[in-house]
Amino acid sequence: MDHLAYQLFTVGSPGQVPNRRLCFPISDSAKRYEAEKALKVEGMREDAKKFIDSLKPYQGGNEPLWTLHEFNNIDKHKFLLSQGPVVLCEAAWMGTEAAYPYYILQSGDPNFAGIFGVETNDELDPTSEEAICKAAFSRVNAMLPTLSELCEYVETLLPKFLPNLE
């Protein structure tokens, strides 16, 4: 959706450089959306801004866009996919008072295996380059139908922006 926002900016402000806040505006409430959208859509044509407004891209207004936004943020900021012999982990048990609430695990460290609670793999070779963190969901099949629905929603939504890109 942010790539779409950039294209809408390019059409609305040819040859200009967008501000750093340019993005497809999705917020956690209607109030916050209204407060923040101006900088996020600056340089887009008015028809594009009005169309975005009509989508109600905020929690409680457009659940598919809100869900997509949340997945995007989780993917970028909260979910660590590890690969290789070095892993950066958040140490929630240290609390917010800790100077560095993160720690690095490296293969060969004595604590590399066994710190992940009840789902520890006792067979893990701490010297291997195999990833040690694996996503676990209580409803394994829930993610795929949700992602499929979001893909269908976006595929249906994007062509509706074509008049704003001409």
Order of helices and strands: HHHHEEH
The percent range for strand residues is 5-15%
Mean pLDDT: 74
Which percent range fits the helix content? 25-40%
**Number of discrete helical segments:** 5
Number of domains: 2
What would you note in describing this structure?
With 166 residues, this protein is mainly alpha-helical. It has 2 domains: 2-78 and 139-165, no CATH class; 80-134, no CATH class. Helices cover 37% and strands 6% of the residues. It has helices spanning 2-12, 30-40, 46-54, 63-78, 143-157, and strands at 86-90, 102-106. The radius of gyration is 21 Å and the shape is globular. It starts with a helix and ends in a 9-residue tail after the last helix.
Relevant terms:
two-stranded antiparallel sheet, 2 domains, 37% helix, 2 strands, 166 residues, mainly alpha
Brief summary:
With 166 residues, this protein is mostly helical. Helices cover 37% and strands 6% of the residues.
Topology diagram in text:
Layout: H1 2-12, H2 30-40, H3 46-54, H4 63-78, E1 86-90, E2 102-106, H5 143-157
Antiparallel strand pairs: 1-2
